[in-house]
Amino acid sequence: MLGSYSRGFWLMCLSSFLFFLSFNLLLPELPDHLAHLGGGEYKGFIIALFTLTAAISRPFSGKLTDTVGRIPVMVFGSLVCFVCGFFYPWALTVSSFLLLRLLHGFSTGFKPTGTAAFVADIVPADKRGEAMGLLGVTGSLGMAAGPAFGSWVAEHFSLNAMFYCSSAAALLSVLVQGTLTETLPRAQRQRFSFSLLKLKLDEILEPRVLAPALTTLLCLLPYGAVLTVIPDQTRLLGLTGPTKGLFYICYTVASLAVRLVAGKASDTHGRVPVLRWSASLLALGLAVLVWSPSVPVFLLGAVIFGVGTGLNSPTLYAWTIDLSHPERRGRGVATMYIALEVGIGIGALLAGWIFDNQPARLPWVHALSLTSVLLALAYLLLGVRATPAGPLTDEAAVNRAMAVGAPEEMV
User: Fold this and answer.
1) How far apart are CA 150 and CA 138, in angstroms?
2) Is residue 287 classed exposed, middle or buried when 0-12, 13-18 and 19+ CB atoms within 10 A define those classes?
3) Could you write out the DSSP letters of every residue in 239-279?
4) How far is Cα 330 from Cα 351, in angstroms, rounded to an integer?
5) According to the UniProt entry, where is the signal peptide (predicted)?
6) 3-class SS at 410?
7) Digitized pLDDT (tens) for each residue of the chain, 411 residues in all
8) Distance (Å, whole) CA 227 – CA 6
9) Which residues have a Cβ under 8 Å from the Cβ of 166 and sit 6 or more positions away?
């Protein structure tokens, strides 16, 4: 399996690892840092503002991915990460910190869009789920290493050193991208101009991918809520210092353990059946977190939630690409990412509002997340028809799938 992918694919995986390492190593320390600046009541904005600009920028990144190229879009996103990491030590007020979080969101608005389109260009359709699983493994390794590494740097050196490490990881990601060859066909490429930033209605959302987009929104809302409250829940359970990132480690290791299997399973059995199982596991993990009186139960919830995510993520990517027209692949991916950012942002805002720094309200945050996943499961069971057929690869097949009637899709 490992030898069947190109050098360009593995370099993209390395770039993805460095990118996710860059902004995830900040996450465990940001809530306490914002509280130290006097903005404890704005903890929900740490994730919400980040995802707001990510969502706003998705239509632009999708169009530019399909016109200017995959690599320029990825480089821009990574450079934003580099610049923001460098300037965090200078954001010494609540307003400047929140402004920087707002700007930082442009990084994830651009880089992953170009990455998904690039990988779809170089991977055969019958290995798409598996490839997205491998790409997800490297990204998740960055997400797992980030919180633990960031907390270690902050504890042994300083918070500013952690910010500069984030900036350095993003710069390394840019250098790796510089070794890649552009995959957008020359006939489609255009020189960048500001006129490309003018969007028509059909360039904002790709109607062909509305089913995976809706599923993404409902399944990712819990992620925004979890990111917002887990640092506080971790501290309340007595996990401090080196153990502060245990939830993230358990969650990510569990996710990694199933991603390769999940990707291959969706190539064989279909995207929707795998997504139904993933939503069920996400719901079970969140139900455990609703009632987590001790560290072992808390970490068990992290593991189950991670397994559900490992099944969910590569399958959603592959399903989105299956339904996207090759010439609008970037816009299809961007639509899915818009749903992702909207879900995460809503989850973060609602979690911050419900929690309000009152520990007794933590179960209600996880109950909200559980409700969202149950809605996703109901939609996958009742609103989407699925067959175990492989991915759609020709225009006629795509049109037949779309004829089922929105919002239903047939895989």
Assistant:
1) 18
2) middle
3) --GGGGGHHHHHHHHHHHHHHHHHHHHHHHH-HHHHHHHHH
4) 31
5) none
6) strand
7) 555 788 889 999 999 999 999 988 888 788 888 888 888 778 778 877 887 888 888 889 888 998 999 999 999 999 999 999 999 999 889 999 999 999 999 998 899 889 988 988 888 877 877 888 788 788 878 877 888 788 889 888 988 999 999 999 999 999 999 999 999 988 889 998 888 888 877 777 888 899 999 999 999 999 989 888 888 888 888 887 767 778 888 887 888 888 766 667 777 878 899 999 999 999 999 999 988 778 899 999 999 999 998 888 888 888 888 888 877 888 888 888 889 888 988 898 898 889 877 888 888 999 999 999 999 999 999 988 754 434 444 444 433 333 332 222 222
8) 34
9) 22, 23, 25, 26, 81, 85, 88, 150
Which are the contacts of 386, defined by CB distance < 8 A and separation ≥ 6?
270, 271, 272, 273, 410, 411
For residue 403, the tally of other CB atoms under 10 A from its CB is: 10
Q: Are 229 and 362 in contact (CB under 8 A)?
A: yes
Angle at the Cα of 14 from the Cα atoms of 12 and 18, rounded to 5 degrees: 115
Residue type, 48: A
Both tokens assigned to 38:
């006097």
Dist CA 227 CA 24 (whole Å)? 11
Contact present, 41 and 357 (Cβ < 8 Å): yes
Q: Which value, in Å, is the radius of gyration of the alpha carbons in the chain?
A: 20
- Secondary structure class of 91 (helix, strand, coil): coil
Using the Cα atoms of residue 134, residue 140, residue 146 and residue 151 in order, give the sign of their dihedral. negative
Residues 6+ apart with CB under 8 A from 187: none
> What's the token pair of residue 60?
């632009």
157-176: b or e for each residue (b if 16 or more CB lie within 10 Å)? eebeebbbbbbbbbbbbbeb
Q: What count of other Cβ atoms lies within 10 Å of the Cβ of residue 323?
A: 25
